[in-house]
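INTERNAL AUDIT FORM
Audit reference: QA-55
Scope: verify that the stored structure record matches its stored sequence.
Auditor: D.O.
Record contents follow.
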Amino acid sequence: MKKGTVLKLAGSAAVGVAAVGAYRTFVKPWQRQWGATAEEVAQAMPGDEIVENPVLNATRAITIQAKPAEVWPWLMQMGYGRAGFYSYDFVDNSRRHSAERIIPELQFLKVGDAIPTSPNQGFIVEKIEPERLLVMTMRGEKNILSVTAMLNALEDGNTRLILRLRLSYRWGVRRSLYFQIFEPGDFVMMRKMMLGIKRRAEAFH
């Protein structure tokens, strides 16, 4: 192999290593704590106990200029084949546009109910406190994912929406590679969902 080729390969490898290092040092922490305060990241939340030793623990938050009671219906009707997830519909809702209105018949969730994410799988409601808390999980043979959505009323009448995602899985090469794709993808979709909920709730405020 020519010396120039070796140098080019070495340079490309160095750039790749630097990019991975920058992602892990700067981008990944930002993704995992998007919009959240240090206190929100550190606080214990209902549902944490479901995934005790997560490989991914993300806490994201956003302020919505609406009351918790005005935000809650948008959470209740989420789901594939329901109101959608207010995110990128071509990814998680078969290109069907997520609802832009509150759908009364989709406002009744209880523990044990399913929130579909596709025709063949979905979340199961684990805990629910109206206008305050929704905890849901997705369990597989070798992994478990929990998502907690909490609405905190602010003194100015607005709402703080906090979403916590915790994931654990049994290590394997394929699962490890999938996880490397899952994490940035999850951030992109969840951020879009939170902004979508904010826009809709504020429009109906």
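Auditor finding: record pair retrieved intact. Residues 149 and 195 are 14 Å apart (CA to CA).
Action required: none
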